[in-house]
Amino acid sequence: MSLIPRIRSLVPDRLSRFARGLGRFCLRRRKRILQGVCALVLAAAAILLWPMDLTPYLRTDPSGEMLDRSGRLMYAFLNEDQQWCFVRELDQINPRLVQATIAAEDRRFHRHHGVDSLAALRAAWQNLRGRRVVSGASTLTMQVVKQDGRSTRSIPGKLRQMIQAFRLDFRVDKRDILKTYLNNAPYGMNLVGCEAAARRYFGKPARELTLPEAALIAAIPKSPSRLMPLQNPERAIRRRNYVLERMWEEGFITAAEYKRARRQTLNVQRHAFPDLAPHLAQRLASLARNQGKVGTTLDYDVQTLAERFVRRHLKGFGDEVENAALLVVDAPTASVLAHVGSGDFFNTPGGGQFDATRALRAPGSTLKPFTYALAIENNSLYPSETLLDDSLDYGLYHPKNFDEAYHGRISATDALRQSLNVPAVLLLDRVGLEPLYQFLRRSGLGTLTAPAEEYGLGLALGNCEVRLDELAAAYCMLANLGEYVPLRVLRSQHPEPRRLLSSGTCLCVYSMLDHPLPGEINRQSLGALDNAPRICWKTGTSTGNRNAWTVMFNRQYVVGVWMGNNDCRPSRRLVGRDAALPLASAVFRRLPASNSPDWPAPGDDLRPVSVCAMSGLPASKWCPHRENVLLPRGQLLNRICDVHWPAKTGDAATTAAEAAATAGIIERWPGTARNWDLAKVAAPFVRASGAAASAPAGEKTLAGKSAATLVQALEILCPSQAAEYVLTGEPNGDRIRLRTTLDEHGLIHWYLDDLYIGSSSPEKSVHLDLKAGRHKLVCMTPEGLTKQVEFDVVRPEGSSLDFKSE
């Protein structure tokens, strides 16, 4: 039997007649059918190619996030709908969760074009047989389309949804559709997106989910309220196991993985979202909500450590001290690593929501290092110099030390380490109130808004108000060897540094503040702390024991601590060394070790100088005992020891002075602390190279003269100090010859208003054409000795002449 008759015998006669009739109908109307097919194709093309606004489908309403320097979530904010929604890229989500979602929701996701026709036919047949909605056929793409809020469960609504799904699939990559779904799917309560669900149920980001955890998260969107695992664990675990089974059937996991995952318990609980650094988070809240994410310089681990130590430390003070603030700064970049604004954000007496790092508080002795630094920078102090700690009387002002005791003669380094008040006031008297005031303002202490006179000499002792964050920035300037930048809290900030102090001055401050912490064994001895980083530190206690401070630093970190009460209530326990220092040192010692040095190398910024062993000043020829110390290379050796003098026979020296004489040398010490200075001024200044600098080749030097003789002999004779010249306007009438006391001994270089104008010698003179105004004239020998005068040049009264000399 042939094939066709055989087929015909198998097909019922009625169906055969219908097929033959349909064939004849199609042959007669093939043109119209072809036109219809073309119309459908064109209609489909028009639908696919018609411009489409993707925003309603791919949008998300993210919660604001504050991230640490490596991208870890530090603090989360609710979005405008009071939901938790953390947007993540697909590569930040565990692939197991992606596989579980596809297996549970749309197993042919990668094979269809937005609509699964097989699933649609199956759903239509099941719904038709059951005469109700038994199952749906929504793909992941169709569920993404639902986001526009215009889809309904009606037939027209479903058709529109399918058409839009086709169009979306045509325009958008599958990965973007998956990402949008996983970031917008509901996961119970007010959780939107898989990241929020993973953090709420398991306390971890979505990229760290295990297989059973990923399956549970993928199971919830089917019915978020009914399958929410915290309330319905039995239903949730059944649905999870179903998802695991689908993953096995689709080949995403092996049978062994499936069996092992099914045996796991749910292990879910309600985890809080990260809320570290809440004070900084409140400051950045609007920025985080506008941008979705804001990257900070904070370090998650350091912030956690700092908050834990602050809370634990405050417990030891009861209600005597109720609040504390702490900052940890990465010194090289001035980046804030930890920001603790109060002991407890919700439960601090007087209001824990107030950021105490920005509170105005009296800093006490924490400002003293800046007085010493400025004195060194301005050539008014050597770190080795001996100061007098004794009673001091400025009329209505009588500064006293914290312990109300005096220590007599003491080196500047020890005076700073022991935080003595009298030497600090003496130094402020030397450098001047206004220069220190302006220096502190340039160092970032913007809270110094009153005129300098209102603070007076007490400014050196911290009788002003500062903020912890600004004080930490000022100390960061010292740590960075004189370069100041404001503290950074955003990774996008890149302020330009500006130099306030020389590196040599800051290296001296490093040495002056480098001493062992209380309770730690000496670094030179054997013990557990031999390899501990070196630390500079300074404490402060405000008047009346209302504020306790500590700031410590090295080349890597700056740690600043304030302790006190929000209502400024005093406490006998608010002493910087006893209250704030232990907290600062505990945090500092636990900061991550760095591969770079924790201590600056001196390099060429310091130079050895021979100083008197008693006064600490550059030694004169009469000083019997000397030692070498390191001083800033740029510091001028213009102050020489004036303590030791030769004993003259037959003089009126007292018995005490004669008893103090050694090998014919006597000591002369000032009697009071007021105007204490053990130095004689050798010259207005001497270049850093010192008197032993060699002259350039070919220049004559003042050979045969000692440095002391040259210093005493060099004077400018013409023009004299404070001289005034009246211009005449006559040819060569407004010209003077520059002269010194050493003109006959060698070469002299001349500088007018800091500009070089020539050199004079026994064979050659230098003449100066006068110009109206105030001028500074400096002469310098090849050895580096200098002398300076200032003089004025004026026009005659009532003169309107146009002087050629001007």
Largest sheet: 5 strands, antiparallel
CATH superfamily assignment of the domain at 61-262?
Biosynthetic peptidoglycan transglycosylase-like
Shape: elongated
* Average pLDDT score: 84
Side by side, the strands of the main sheet go 7-6-14-13-12
CATH fold-level assignment of the domain at 61-262:
Penicillin binding protein transpeptidase fold
Contiguous low-pLDDT stretches (5 residues minimum) are 523-528, 649-662, 683-711, 800-806
Please give a structural write-up.
- There is one protein chain.
- The chain is an alpha+beta fold.
- Among the domains are: about 5-50; about 60-260, Biosynthetic peptidoglycan transglycosylase-like (Penicillin binding protein transpeptidase fold); about 295-360 and about 485-495 and about 530-600, Beta-Lactamase (2-Layer Sandwich); about 705-795, Immunoglobulins (Immunoglobulin-like, Sandwich), CATH 2.60.40.
- The chain is built from 26 helices and 29 strands.
- The protein has a 5-stranded antiparallel sheet, with helices on both faces. It has a 5-stranded mixed sheet with strand order 22-29-28-25-26, with no helix packed on it. A 3-stranded mixed sheet has the order 2-1-5, with helices on one face.
- Helix 5 crosses helix 11, helix 11 (about 210-220) packs across helix 12 (about 235-250) and helix 17 crosses helix 19 (about 420-430).
How is this fold's topology laid out?
Blueprint: H1 3-10, H2 13-28, H3 30-49, H4 55-58, E1 65-67, E2 73-76, E3 84-85, H5 95-105, H6 117-130, H7 140-145, H8 155-171, H9 174-184, E4 191-192, H10 194-202, H11 211-219, H12 233-249, H13 255-262, H14 278-283, H15 285-291, E5 293-295, H16 300-315, E6 323-330, E7 335-340, H17 368-377, E8 386-389, E9 408-411, H18 412-417, H19 421-431, H20 433-442, H21 452-455, H22 468-479, E10 483-484, E11 498-499, H23 503-513, E12 536-541, E13 547-553, E14 557-564, H24 576-588, E15 606-612, E16 626-632, E17 639-641, E18 644-646, H25 655-660, E19 665-667, E20 679-681, H26 707-713, E21 716-718, E22 724-726, E23 735-737, E24 739-740, E25 748-752, E26 755-760, E27 767-769, E28 773-780, E29 786-794
Parallel strand pairs: 1-5, 3-4, 22-29
Antiparallel strand pairs: 1-2, 6-7, 6-14, 8-9, 10-11, 12-13, 13-14, 15-16, 17-20, 18-19, 21-24, 23-27, 25-26, 25-28, 28-29
